[in-house]
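Loading example: each entry is read as two labelled lines plus one structure line.
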Amino acid sequence: MTVPADLKYTKEHEWVRIDDDTATLGISDHAQEALGDIVFVELPEIGRQLASGEAFAVVESVKAVSDIYAPVAGEVIEVNEELEATPEKVNTDPYGSGWIAKVKTSGASVELLNDDEYTIFLQE
Amino acid sequence: MTDLARTPLFDEHLALGGKMVPFAGFQMPVQYPAGALQEYKAVRDGRAGLFDISHMGQVRVSGPEALAFLQYVTTNDVARLVDGQVQYSALLNDHGTFIDDITTYKINDAEYYLCINAANRHKDVAHLKEQANSFDVHVIDESDDTTLLALQGAAAQQALQQIVDIDLEGLGYYRFGQMAVNGAAAIVSRTGYTGEDGFELYLPNAAAVDIWRKLLVLDAVPIGLAARDMLRTEMGYALYGHEISDSVTPVEARLMWITRLDKGAFIGRDVVAARKEQGPEKQLIALKLTGRGIPREHYPVTVDGKPSGEVTSGMHSPMAGGVALAYVRPEHAASGDLAVEIRGKAVPATRTSTPFVRSNVRK
């Protein structure tokens, strides 16, 4: 179970990487492992305005359908279209090629945890 | 999960890292660490998958009127069975709807063996015992004494042959033999729920752990419930609680091929005959999405934009894409533009036939 130090996390098990006003979003290693084999990802539309905490994508494993919630508010500016053909990248590389969307942030966010806080949260 | 039952293989599942979930009153492995997709592939791609399906129930029916009794309580024509043959069948109630779907094993004219669904076990046994009052038969629930394993996949016969005392090559599809498995008296049938060649093994509980371990050493791959459901859905096989239930008759479920109206009186017969005459209330169909998405149980199905029914089983098939079984209004079974509503969006679909992928059972 990896929890990279350069990311922030939510209690819903999303991660966010913030570079200036751009946030890259995905789901954590813990989340992908709990979901099991991911076979479908429904991506948001580019240009969609997200409120923080809003469900913006759907990840489906063999047995389950899971909403993915936006850690930050903002406009969707890019989505990882490769996941349409290779959703398993969310399993194999959740923090890299398994990213889901990029958002131009407006500043608002849900409660974000750093790597230590998220690791403790996972242990609770 | 403390009030849930455990199969004799519970500790084996834990030792293998099985993720246990509640299922039909038991703690059962939904998957092992390799994951459902890898397990599915092991069965489809030529290996042998090993399934603990001991949650299922077994009932022995014996006595001089065993045939007459089973003709009356099951839908299929038991008189067609020869000794050593298995038959897919069903138990109906007075309303012609399903109590359960079952398999009937004919041992001889005076002795039969039924395999029933776990979730319906107590209901089935109560029903059978009540009906048995009118016949010279004994109905014995042997579920608690029996471990049921399935070994499925192209390599199943080769693996099983190492631990049985007869030549399996002579055992045909839907045939069974009473034989020694690893020295234990067992019933072995060439049956299954996956669409691959394979066997189901009815074992005394005390012999189960050794046989389970031996088959793993013989390169069998343990398979959990998730992959089992993928394999059966790809075949379009009905599952109680999904395609069949006490709210549909065999006419709706397209199971008239196991319902022999011409065999004489049986429970539910007259209702089913009338329904067949009048036409079904709804109709089970097979569909394949032409748009992106995964059809899931209870998702609405529309025809020409209007509500028509819902998905009963659906999946993402690695080979066939988004496929599902669904009930629709009977007038929509054959025509009209079909779609599945996925999170509010109508995803177009086409009607197709089952199995969704090629079956490799030995015919």
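The radius of gyration of chain A is 13 Å.
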